[in-house]
Amino acid sequence: MEINVLIAHMDDLANKAAKIGFSASKFLTPAEAQSITENFARRQDIALTPDGGYEGAERIRMVFTNPDWGSYDREDLFSALKIVHRPQDSLGHRDILGALMALGIERETIGDILIDEQLTTFVCLPELSGYIIGNISKAGRVGIKISEIALNELPARKEELKIKTGTVASMRLDAVLSVAFGLSRSKVAELVAAGRVSLNHQICLQAGKGVSELSLLSVRGLGRAKLLEVGGATKKGRIFIKIGLYAR
Fold first, then answer.
1. Segments forming the whole domain that contains residue 56
2. Pairing state of beta strands 120-124 and 110-115?
3. Whether residue 93 sits in one domain with residue 53
4. Domain at 60, CATH number
5. Which residues of 186-206 are buried (b: 16+ CB within 10 A; e: fewer)?
6. How far is 50 from 33, CA to CA, in rounded Å?
7. What is the mean pLDDT of each run of 10 residues along the chain (248 residues)?
């Protein structure tokens, strides 16, 4: 969704919550969620809670509540579904999403899709769970069976990171990316200018932008990284940093 249209829609939801106590968006991408959080940070008449149904969720719903209204139940906002298939079959994220889209289901009604060796699950709006269970029996070429599980049965999102360390003269975006991806500062500057670099899910066009600990970095075509730690300085005044690279 175009960002100005999205913000206008979120404003409508916020106003609704201020009047009746509660409202919630559909699932948002991390970049959309970041924009909404920044835009509503100063609003005093509503509380804003990002929630994806479990801790560490990437795709989340924005939950607006009037502070006088109270809390909400996650079970009213999310359903968790488990996918079972034969052990010899292989099932990917794209297979599952394709099967859901083939039913005419919109992407913003589906949260995270979690695939590991033990359990394959995904999150959706509660009103869709019965329809999905009753209408999907195959994902790609793999026969599957879908059933509902409790939200607390969802596995925690795993961060498999390859650790890199180095030093930088300052905490500039281009300096940190040089360490993360082994690039020259001039090459990083080209990527930034081309709009291929994101900082905390937002495209960043400033190579000299400051980067803080736990910032998320992304270079389209190269991968994603997280600045895990900013350490002390060397004798020459350079700053130690530790970066985690996400598996591609």
1. 3-71
2. antiparallel
3. no
4. 3.30.1370.160
5. eebbebbeeeebbbbeeebee
6. 8
7. 84 92 93 86 87 92 89 93 92 92 95 86 97 95 95 83 93 95 93 93 91 91 92 91 87
